[in-house]
Design goal:
Blueprint (H helix, E strand, L loop, with lengths): L12 H18 L4 H10 L3 E14 L17 E16 L2 E12 L21 E18 L4 E4 L8 E4 L2 E9 L21 H4 L14 E10 L2 E9 L16 E13 L2 E17 L1 H11 L9 E16 L4 E10 L13 E11 L4 E14 L2 H8 L18 E13 L2 E11 L10 E11 L1
Antiparallel strand pairs: 1-2, 1-18, 2-3, 3-4, 4-7, 5-6, 7-8, 8-9, 9-10, 10-11, 11-12, 12-13, 13-14, 14-15, 15-16, 16-17, 17-18
Helix pairs in contact: 4-5
Length: 455
């Protein structure tokens, strides 16, 4: 059992305590400890960790056809930048349980203050921003792992994860402030705007109107159950006080339920997984047709806030990822959400299909480089088309009118180059046809450069 301990060589307090624990474990080993106690020691791993990340994104639109514009329209020939610096502070509070705190400094804006495209082109841009750096606390949470019977796996240290090992079969509880995307709809090829794709509708399913404040974080709880090739997840989270708000509604007065079922498999010895995610939001939301009808009756501008009542919005999507070879991976998402009610948190998408490829650079002797290619088709309901054509504003879109609606089609490609052991530079290009579902505007070419460092 002593072989599972690694004590620091320095003569600090931690070294003294560790050596004491080592001596005690040796004494217990002589007495023949039960196997469960042995596994508990092995699973402890790190007790404390500090990680950090820095990300800078510069994004620009080229010129495109724009005969008219509205409050939430994308502009030709504009550029914006975002910067964020995050600390990841982790503590083991009891065996299996970790407390994580993520203080962060942000600065900058998305294109047009993060409006103009339903599949917005930068996952590093929030719905709020400032020219000057400002402090936030996006995450403060506990996750507790309860090991069940079965084989064990090594757990590498990283942001919001202490190193150690864990049982393949386990229960995991998340509690506190974090992002729904930390737990649900996780995809290794398309889920991290600091390392892979930037577009919102590639990073997550475009129809996943998940609970969040304007920075994409919320307060809630989630439970995961890993058993063999299956994982079941469920969670409950606070919604914003009003749609697209910087403030959460505390105490689950307006809330969202999420359930997810995942199955892992191998095809020709290459791993993959399939996931089904379902959400249901319970909050004060407006019916789109009712808002248009009231505006016509009163001869006033469309105001979705005037028809908000306590309602629900249901949505579901399928996610797939599959390794095709050691260096090549495939991913896809297909989603649908209710189109008769306003979008609450994420973006104005009622139907979405996305898919793509991720390739490592081993073939050209750049094993730590990655390149990706993705395609997206977003759609909206007839009710949302009528609402936008009447001058209504969505979470991200609203050109003042929509006489010629069409599906929003996006292609994104990137090359992520490792320039230092802990730093990468990414060059990204996106092509958007019918931005905000408007055939009268676009197509738009969007260029971006991203610098990311993580320690």
């Amino acid at each position: 059992m002593a072989a599972f301990f690694k004590c620091p060589r320095s003569g600090n307090l931690r070294a003294v305590l560790c050596m004491g624990a080592l001596a005690a474990s040796t004494a217990f080993a002589d007495a023949g400890p039960p196997a469960d106690a042995d596994l508990a020691v092995r699973a402890r791993g790190e007790d404390f960790a500090i990680h950090a990340q820095f990300t800078y994104v510069e994004q620009d639109t080229l010129g495109f056809n724009a005969p008219y514009r509205g409050t939430n329209s994308l502009s030709p020939r504009i550029g914006r930048e975002t910067t964020d610096f995050t600390l990841f502070l982790g503590f083991r509070i009891w065996p299996g349980a970790e407390l994580w705190i993520n203080p962060e400094i942000d600065q900058g804006f998305g294109l047009n203050n993060t409006v103009g495209v339903a599949g917005f082109p930068s996952g590093e841009a929030y719905k709020v921003g400032k020219n000057q750096p400002y402090f936030r606390l996006p995450r403060l949470f506990v996750h507790d792992t309860v090991d069940l019977q079965g084989d064990r796996e090594k757990l590498d240290a990283g942001p919001n994860q202490l190193g150690g090992d864990r049982s393949l079969n386990r229960l995991v509880l998340w509690l506190g402030k974090f992002s729904v995307g930390d737990v649900f709809d996780v995809n290794q090829y398309a889920h991290d705007p600091r390392a892979d794709f930037l577009n919102w509708a590639v990073v997550d399913a475009g129809t996943f109107d998940y609970a969040a404040d304007a920075w994409a974080y919320t307060v809630g709880a989630a439970l995961e159950w890993y058993q063999g090739a299956w994982t079941s997840r469920a969670g409950v989270f606070d919604l914003s006080d009003i749609p697209n708000s910087a403030h959460l509604e505390p105490g689950f007065k307006e809330f969202q339920l999420i359930a997810e079922l995942e199955h892992r498999h191998e095809i020709a010895h290459h791993p993959g997984k399939l996931m089904l995610t379902v959400f249901d939001s319970f909050g004060r939301m407006g019916l789109l047709d009712e808002a248009v009808q009231r505006a016509q009756e009163t001869q006033t501008p469309v105001d979705i806030g005037s028809v908000r009542r306590y309602r629900t919005r249901l949505g579901a999507h399928l996610t797939a990822e599959q390794q095709l070879s050691t260096d090549l991976g495939f991913f896809a998402r297909l989603g649908k959400a209710a189109g008769n009610v306003e979008a609450y948190e994420f973006t104005d998408i009622d139907r979405s299909a996305s898919g793509g490829l991720s390739l490592k650079g081993s073939a050209w002797r750049r094993a730590h480089d990655t390149m990706g290619l993705a395609g997206i088709i977003n759609g909206i309901s007839a009710s949302r088309e009528r609402y936008l054509n009447a001058g209504g504003l969505g979470v991200l879109i609203g050109d003042g009118k929509l006489p010629h609606p069409g599906p929003e089609k996006i292609v994104e490609t990137y090359y992520n180059a490792a320039i230092l052991p802990h730093a990468q530079m990414t060059f990204d290009y996106q092509w958007v046809d019918n931005p905000a579902y408007n055939k009268d505007r676009g197509p738009v070419s969007i260029l971006a450069v991203r610098f990311h460092a993580q320690f």
